[in-house]
Amino acid sequence: MSNLPSEPEFEQAYKELASTLENSSLFEKNPEYKKALAISAIPERIIQFRVTWEDDKGEVQVNRGYRVQFNSALGPYKGGLRFHPTVNLSVLKFLGFEQIFKNALTGLSMGGGKGGADFDPKGKSDNEIRKFCVAFMSELGKHIGANIDVPAGDIGVSPREIGWMFGQYKKQTKNWEGVLTGKGLAWGGSLIRPEATGYGCVYYVDHMIKYASGGKDSFSGKKVTISGSGNVAQYAALKVIELGGTVVSLSDSKGSIIAKEGGITPEMVSTIADLKVKRKALSEVASSSDFSGKVEYKEGVRPWLHVGNVDVALPSATQNEVSQEEAEGLIKAGCKFIAEGSNMGCTQEAIEAFEKVRKEKGQDAIWYAPGKAANAGGVAVSGLEMAQNSARIKWTSEEVDEKLKDIMKNCFENCLNTAKEYVTPKEGEFPSLVAGANIAGAIKTFSAMHDQGDWW
Fold first, then answer.
1. Does the pLDDT at position 245 exceed 60?
2. 254 known member of a binding site
3. 313: helix, strand or coil
4. CA separation (Å) from 251 to 154, 200, 254, 293?
5. Going by DSSP bridges, is the β-strand pair 255-259/246-252 parallel, antiparallel, or unpaired?
6. How much of the chain exceeds pLDDT 90, in percent?
């Protein structure tokens, strides 16, 4: 990769996966997988295009659009679309690469991909966002399909934007098909999809807690610090509260709210959800009558070093939101479980800090779960939406939730058992879930690539 421009986010994701494979017995048992890793690091296809659209002043604007179709060994390319000014090829390649192995861990027939544009929805009118979505899909629609590539939403892309893009795709192709997930419930969307990433992350951690305690413990009574305030953070918070835990923080890019006593309530989460639809900052509610005296707003910081002693941490905002310093702070604060609701939420240095303590302190240590396992619930329910669209049926919320619980249970057990097999833990040491997730996802992907002739 030395002849390529610097791609720090992608290089971090690749090294994180490659290092765990190299430090396991995987290549010793299957030396041919080294070649498969090298092949899987190069996308099958990258589509880059310009998006021209007209703002409300009648002036033409231009943005860069992308779709990274990374790996289709296990099914159609599957992964979100992100509209944000930070979007570039490095970010999308990192997200698409992670998506390959995350999708493999769901057990569903989905390959890995990611896309988006450097378009910033903030400060734009609804009409301008709609025009951009139509222009974006006018080009992207030439490269996707229900059996080719099925994008979903991500940062900056809600069900509203999915609707506008779906409408444009249908006008171009004359096809009503499950080409996008995260659709409206009235026209092919799945119940539980908005909740799925947050719910799934909490379900995964619940299995961690039960395994660590021999089935004796649960979320009940746990103090939980959460970052972010979008869909993932909101629904993770609501599920933690439902299971008896206390949520002590939420955040956005401008700062954090830290609960004083009693924790953040479902009513507060609902207020924040309404705020986010309007693309406003948490600072605007922190001093309101519903929040005043109940939370403290800290400008310009993430919550990790400001919440005191906690039991569980759920990074649920964006990549690299837990640094080494913050990781060490969480360890000192007595945190026992950390799971990424965001993609690559922890820096490599933070992961190394968690893993070092896991090895040194055994069952008294913090136990870390990577996003490719812990936040797989969102894409899992996207896969279930695809299945419902293909069969022209609709499952109840209870049915979807039960399927999500089963998928997250199987994902946890797969990570756990794979880690035990390929990175044998010492007596009294929790298995490495990051190694288990990487190895389990790689084995499934690489074996499918081999069977289809990508390597031999």
1. yes
2. no
3. strand
4. 18, 20, 8, 17
5. antiparallel
6. 92
324: buried, middle or exposed (CB in 10 Å: 19+, 13-18, 0-12)? middle
The tens digit of pLDDT for each residue in 321-336 reads: 999 999 999 999 999 9
Is 231 flagged in the annotation as binding? yes
Q: What would the two tokens of residue 289 be?
A: 């009558």
Distance CA 152, CA 285 (A): 30
pLDDT at 2 over 80: no
Known binding residue 347? Answer is no
196-374 falls under which CATH superfamily? NAD(P)-binding Rossmann-like Domain (3.40.50.720)
Would you state the pLDDT for residue 286?
87
Both structure tokens of 370: 């990577």
How many whole angstroms separate alpha carbon 452 and alpha carbon 196?
32
Specify the amino acid at residue 32.
Answer: E
User: Mean pLDDT throughout 141-147?
Assistant: 97
Per the annotation, does 99 bind a ligand? Answer: yes
Q: Find out whether 153 is annotated in a ligand binding site.
A: yes
Looking up tokens 């010492």, which residue turns up? Answer: 426
Residue in this structure with the two tokens 């506008």, named with its chain if needed: 164
Given the residues 15, 93, 114, 216, select the one marked as catalytic: 114
Domain limits, CATH 3.40.50.10860, in the chain: 43-174
CA dist., res. 88 & res. 46, Å (int): 12
Is 278 marked as a binding-site residue?
Answer: no
Note the CATH number of domain 43-174: 3.40.50.10860
Is 114 catalytic? The answer is: yes
- CA–CA separation, 222 vs 240, rounded Å? 9
